[in-house]
Structure formats: structure tokens, C-alpha cells
Specification:
With about 80 residues, the chain is mainly alpha-helical. It has 2 helices and no strands. The protein has a domain of about 50 residues.
Length: about 80
């Protein structure tokens, strides 16, 4: 359903940064909650559940950290 114009609307840089930060914060929060539940489950002698949730939480924490690290490295390379 197009109105006939071929003009493409783009998202602003500020909006893109806000959305990326919000998604990263949500992933980190969910990862932290999963990892802490994994530690709790492990302490209650639920080994498999504890290990699986801890690993899943660690991966979810690692995703925003990796993205942030790559962005900082790219910024530092541009400044040289």
C-alpha cells in the first residue's frame, strides 16, 4: 500500500541509538536474571537447570557487551 511516491523514509541516527541501547539493556537485564536464577537453581541441587540457565544468561549478557566493544573499537579507529 504505497501512496505513489518513491521517497524512502529513514530512521534518524538518534532514534536508532535509542532503540539499540534499549534492546541492549533489555538483553542484559534478561541475561542477568537468567544467570542469577541459574546460580539459585544450582544451589538447590538442580544441576542441569542451573547450568543451562546460567549459560543462557551469560550468552545474553555477552551480546550487548560484544556490540558495545565493537562500536568503541570502530570509534577509536575512526579517530586515528
Amino acid at each position: 500500500m504505497s501512496d505513489g511516491s518513491e521517497e524512502k523514509r529513514r530512521i534518524s541516527t538518534l532514534a536508532a541509538v535509542i532503540v539499540a541501547v534499549a534492546i541492549g539493556a533489555a538483553l542484559a537485564y534478561l541475561g542477568f536474571r537468567l544467570a542469577s536464577f541459574g546460580v539459585y537453581a544450582f544451589s538447590e541441587d538442580e544441576l542441569l537447570l542451573g547450568v543451562l540457565t546460567f549459560v543462557a544468561g551469560s550468552v545474553l549478557i555477552g551480546i550487548p557487551v560484544a556490540v558495545l566493544t565493537s562500536q568503541v573499537v570502530a570509534l577509536l579507529r575512526r579517530r586515528r
